[in-house]
Amino acid sequence: xxxxxxxxxxxxxxxxxxxxxxxxxxxxxxxxxxxxxxxxxxxxxxxxxxxxxxxxxxxxxxxxxxxxxxxxxxxxxxxxxxxxxxxxxxxxxxxxxxxxxxxxxxxxxxxxxxxxxxxxxxxxxxxxxxxxxxxxxxxxxxxxxxxx
Length: 148
Hints:
Blueprint: H1 7-18, E1 28-36, E2 41-51, H2 55-66, E3 75-79, H3 91-108, E4 116-124, E5 130-131, H4 133-146
Parallel strand pairs: 2-5, 3-4
Antiparallel strand pairs: 1-2, 2-4
Helix pairs in contact: 3-4
């Protein structure tokens, strides 16, 4: 698995990753835009962290974890961006980064048995550019966790 975030960036948000998430601060947003003219790269992503509100997903997770003695420490993922702003085909670059981040958070974070959701809510793209959405996603997640 490739490195999710670089060491220097990880250390910037390490304390926040280990801290319990204050639910009263939610929703939180992280946004980043990458534009590298000389490399022809562009990507813009906005991510929201909030409490999961889909009761079916919550019940599924509670049923799954209710069969073990482990506390619930789960996150879900969703795509809420409007197609005209950020076409869904860009999800192939964005979703793996968020899921990798969720995998790490699920092992180190404590959220009081509340299921939280990462949602892609906005972004931008350019037809003539190479995608940089994976980099923008990493930076948006870092920006989001600096706020916790």
